[in-house]
Each structure stands twice: as C-alpha cells, then as structure tokens.
Automatic annotation (TrEMBL):
The keyword Transcription regulation applies. One of its GO terms (molecular function) is sequence-specific DNA binding. InterPro entries: Homeodomain-like_sf, HTH_AraC, HTH_AraC-typ_CS. This is Transcriptional regulator, AraC family. It comes from Faecalibacterium duncaniae (strain DSM 17677 / JCM 31915 / A2-165). It holds the Pfam family HTH_18. PANTHER family: ARAC-FAMILY TRANSCRIPTIONAL REGULATOR.
Length: 263
C-alpha cells in the first residue's frame, strides 16, 4: 500500500528559517484599501501580512486567501498579487517585509491578536533612522512580533527565549559603557554563559561581545556626529579609556577611523 506522506507545515518551515537567521525585517508599512477597491502588483519581497480591520481577498496568481482580523498571511516574491476589499468597510493591514526567496504562501491564526496589534502600532510610531535608541527599540519590538507569529509553534520555548533576550538587550542598552562580560550577562538572566551565547547566535546571529561592541560603536558614531564630542570623549562615554584602542576597534568595525565622522 502506498503511504501518503504528510505535507510540511509552512509555519514550521518559516520558524526554521527564522531560527537559522534567514528572516530579518527590512521594514514595516501600513496600508488601507477602501471599500470596494482592488489593487494588483508584482511582489518584490517576502512579507508577513497582518490584517487590522475589514476583510479582503489576497490572490497570489489565482491562489486566494481570506484576510481578516485575527489571521496573518505569508506572501512571497515574484507573484502577481491582487487584493480586493470586501464589504462596505475599508481594509487596513500592516506588512513586515524581509528578503527571502522561499515560495511560501499560507495563512494562520494569531494566538494573541490584540498584543500583536499593540506591538505593530508601537513599531509604526518609531523612526529608526532618528537615533540608536529608536533603532534598538525597533529591534526589540520586532523580536516580540516574531514571538507572536510563532506563538502556536513551540510557544513556551519561543516566549521564554524571547523574554530572556529582551532582558539581555535591555541590560546592554543601559550598561554598555560598563566593563560587561559574558558571565555578567548570564547572571542577569540566571543562565549559563554558553546558553546566553547560543541565544545571541540564534536570535542575532552574532556573539554577545560583538553585539556589545557594535552597540558601543553605533552610540559613539552618534556622539561624534553631534559635534559635541572629541574622539577621546566619545570613547570614554561608551566605555573605552584608551582612545587609541577605541579608534582601532572603530576602524575595524566601520572600515574608516572615527575622525572621519567629526563635522
């Protein structure tokens, strides 16, 4: 007798892509389609699509999906997409775009719709190009958004790891100028140092020390661009007492010396 193998779960495939660092947001956008209107275009990126209000049909080259509050859709690039608003209510939705060529098309229920909407509203209010703290806040909220998307798939593991990462990232944001070590980070979340390294690789694809250095360099860049700090002063502000050592680290990370940033 021939056995029919189970079809792969597209959400599980997406979760594996996320764990392997292949899903990284390149932006969030909010859209409104007025009642009775349709829009058609060729997709360029993969997207997580979260309907906020109203109803619509998303048709990816004649493969239709109902879009309504409480669901999210996943779209992929290089497809002709037609969106048609249903009923007499405007259709409002939010997209998170990322670069990935895997042809996944599916819809799935949100486990905590209201919490997901709250996270998305906070993200849309941010201006990540404004300063390092806004960029960090968006990174943190984006991780929370992913935790909501994958809440039905290993929900306890996803939630707990996401919470641990948020604590670690908050701690670095508050104490980046201090002589932080891997052991000090591990103490903050009562975890082993090896597990903290694993979480940074899993969620950020980077070592904790490299994340810390990158964070310091980004803060120093903003200080230097302000025109209110010398290289030595900026180095001290981000935790380096030796300005020459700081300059070497800066050039290694940025490809040019910090003096180039000075106005």
């Amino acid at each position: 007798m021939n056995q029919i193998s189970a079809l792969p779960n597209p959400l599980e495939i997406l979760f594996q892509e996320y764990n392997q660092g292949r899903i990284e947001s390149v932006g969030f956008r909010s859209f409104t389609l007025h009642a009775g209107e349709s829009n058609s275009y060729r997709t360029l990126k993969s997207a997580l699509i979260v309907p906020v209000s109203g109803r619509a049909i998303f048709s990816f080259e004649h493969e239709p999906f109902i879009a309504k509050r409480g669901l999210f859709l996943h779209g992929c690039p290089d497809k002709t997409l037609t969106i048609s608003a249903l009923g007499e209510q405007d259709f409002h939705y939010i997209n998170m775009y990322y670069e990935n060529d895997r042809p996944l098309l599916f819809s799935h229920k949100l486990k905590n719709p209201e919490q997901t909407f709250s996270i998305l509203e906070q993200i849309l209010k941010l201006h990540p190009d404004a300063d390092i703290r806004s960029q960090y806040q968006q990174e943190k909220l984006t991780e929370e958004f992913f935790a909501q998307i994958f809440a039905d798939f290993q929900p306890e593991e996803t939630y707990n790891e996401s919470q641990i990462m948020n604590i670690l990232l908050d701690f670095i944001a508050e104490h980046y100028a201090e002589p932080l070590t891997l052991d000090a980070l591990a103490e903050q979340v009562n975890e082993k140092a090896g597990h903290v390294s694993y979480l940074f690789y899993k969620y950020k694809n980077i070592r904790p020390i490299d994340y810390l250095i990158n964070y310091r360099v980004r803060i120093a860049t903003e200080l230097l661009r302000s025109g209110d700090y010398t290289v030595t002063q900026a180095a001290h502000e981000v935790g380096y007492r030796d300005a020459c050592y700081f300059s070497r680290i800066y050039k290694k990370r940025m490809g040019f010396p910090p003096t180039r940033i000075l106005p």
